[in-house]
Every structure is written in C-alpha cells, then in structure tokens.
C-alpha cells in the first residue's frame, strides 16, 4: 500500500475507522493541520549526513505522516499512547508501524534511531528523556 498525499491517507483511515466517532474526526483533522510541520521535519531528516533507515515518531497520532518518510525510502515507527488510539486503527503497512505505548517505557529500543516529534516532546514527554542518535523536534522548526 502506497500513499501519495494526506487525502489518500485519510481516505484509507476512513475505511478502517468509525467516521461517526468525534474522537476519530479530531485525529483526522490533526493530519491536515500538522502536515506542513511534518514536511519541515522530513526536510531536516533528509539534511542529516547519513540518511536513516527509519524514524521513530513520538506522538504519531494515527501514523498519518508515515507516508512522507516512506516515500523517501525511510521506514516509520509511530509511538502514541493517546487514549483514542485504543478505539481507532492507525495506518500500518510493511514500512509504517505503530506502537501503543509510553515512549519512556520503550525508549531504550530506539536510542540508536532518529527520533522525531511535532508536539508531544516538550508537552507530554520531557525533551531530556529523549534518547536518540538524532532528535528533531518540529516545534523548534
């Protein structure tokens, strides 16, 4: 499965989630509202001296932004513990994975990866707790 833009991602999410659920509607809008921020994060990832094989996104919502990275040949792992994720299905493909967990509980597994975040780090996760080869915080871009 390949997505070319956020519209295609949302159309897919609509097929696997309850479109009448207001929590889902909120998650879906998050994709459109923050897409430009994730494009800036991707641009920073692509500036790294060595292109990473994968990125790990703290606060990935429903993995709406994974397609941006996968289309550049970078696998994407989304981590989110937001309660709505228990009721909704995120995007998952061969190259886009989702982990429903607290980052702090699994951070050791990803300490050698490129960690990205748009809103969660600095809000729900303390930046000093992020363990990574590289960390790109979208709120700083």
Explained architecture:
- The protein has 141 residues and is of the alpha/beta class.
- The protein has helices at 6-16, 22-47, 66-70, 103-106; strands spanning 54-58, 75-79, 96-99, 114-117, 134-137.
- Strands 3-2-1-4-5 form a 5-stranded parallel beta sheet.
- It is globular and about 40 Å long.
- It has 4 helices and 5 strands, in the order H-H-E-H-E-E-H-E-E.
Largest sheet: 5 strands, parallel
Q: Tell me the CATH architecture.
A: 3-Layer(aba) Sandwich
Query: How many E-type strands?
Result: 5
Rg on CA atoms, Å: 14 Å
CATH fold topology? Rossmann fold
Name the beta content range: 15-25%
Enumerate the strands of the largest sheet in spatial order, edge to edge or round the barrel: 3-2-1-4-5
- Report mean pLDDT, rounded to a whole number: 92
Query: Please, how many helices?
Result: 4
The SSE string, one letter per element, is: HHEHEEHEE
Poorly predicted runs are none
* CATH fourth-tier homologous superfamily: Vaccinia Virus protein VP39
Inertia-based shape: globular
* Structural category: alpha/beta
CA-CA gap between termini = 30 Å
């Amino acid at each position: 499965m390949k997505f070319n833009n956020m519209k295609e991602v949302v159309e897919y999410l609509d097929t696997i989630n309850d479109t009448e659920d207001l929590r889902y509607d909120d998650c879906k809008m998050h994709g459109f509202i923050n897409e430009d921020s994730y494009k800036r994060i991707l641009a920073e990832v692509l500036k790294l001296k060595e292109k990473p094989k994968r990125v790990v996104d703290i606060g990935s919502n429903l993995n709406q932004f994974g397609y941006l990275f996968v289309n550049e040949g970078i696998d994407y792992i989304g981590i989110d513990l937001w309660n709505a994720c228990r009721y909704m299905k995120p995007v998952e493909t061969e190259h886009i994975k989702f982990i429903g967990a607290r980052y702090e509980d699994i951070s050791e597994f990803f300490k050698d990866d490129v960690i990205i975040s748009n809103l969660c780090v600095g809000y729900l996760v303390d930046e000093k707790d992020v363990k990574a080869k590289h960390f790109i915080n979208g709120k700083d871009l």
